[in-house]
Amino acid sequence: MEHKITLENIQKNDYFYEEAIKTLRTNIQFCGSGIKTIMFTSSIPNEGKSDTAFSLAQSFSSIGKKVLLIDADIRKSVLVKRYGIREKTNGLSQYLSGQKKQEEIIYSTNVENFYIILSGPYSPNPAELLEEPLFKKLLEDMRRDFDYVIIDTPPMANLIDGAIVGSLCDGAVLVIESGTVSYRLAQKVKSQLERSGCRILGVVLSRIGVEQDRPYYKKYYGKYGRYKKYYEYSRYDKGSYYGPEEEKNA
Hints:
Blueprint: E1 3-5, H1 15-30, E2 37-42, H2 49-62, E3 67-71, H3 79-82, H4 92-96, E4 107-109, E5 114-117, H5 126-130, H6 133-145, E6 148-152, H7 161-166, E7 171-177, H8 183-195, E8 200-206, E9 210-211, E10 214-215, E11 230-231, H9 244-249
Parallel strand pairs: 1-4, 2-6, 2-7, 3-5, 3-6, 7-8, 8-11
Antiparallel strand pairs: 4-5, 9-10
Helix pairs in contact: 1-2
C-alpha cells in the first residue's frame, strides 16, 4: 500500500530563482550518471540548504526524474511545518531505531515523481542513528529505486551528522549565505567533507545582491566546483541549532 502526503505552501518562484535551480540541476546531471545520492549541507543554520534541496528535487521531478528527498536533519527539521504536511507520518528516526520498516517511511506526494522521507520524531542521538547500518542500507536500496536521492542534512560547523551522511553519498553540495559565513569556516566545512571521502560537487551561494528590488543570478566558475548559483530570499524566520556557547563559536 502506497503512503501519500500533500505538500502545501509550495510557492511559485520568480524567473531568476528558477533559472538558478535549473542551472544547478543541469550541472549535477553533467557530473555523470554515477551521481545519484546527493547531500545538501551548510556551515551554520538558516543559509538556505533545505529550501535549495527541496527546489532541486522538485526541479528534477518536473523533467520526469523519479526523486526521493530524505530529511536527515533529525535535530531540527523544517519540512513538515514549512510545507503544511497535515497527515500523521512516520520518519527516518523511527526507521533507524528499528521501530518502522522502509516501506512505512516512504511517502509519495501530490507532486508527480516526488517522494519524501521525513525526519521523524526528534532523537537525542541523531549522529549515532545515522551511523547505523540501516542508514547505509536505506541509501543503497533507494539508489536502485530512484533516479536521484537528495539528502538534507544539518549544518556542519559544530555537528558531525553531515560528515557521516557524506561518507555514504556520491556527492555533496555546500550552501553558503553571502556575507555571513567566513572563508575560514567555509574551508573548515569543506575539509570535513573531504575527510569523510565525499566528493564536493559545488557550492550554492545564497542571498546575494538585490538590484531594483529583485534577485539576480549569474554563473561563476570558481575553485569550489564547476558551478555556483546566486539568489536572494527572506521567506523564513531565523532559528538556532545550538546553545549560546555553541552559537558563539559556530
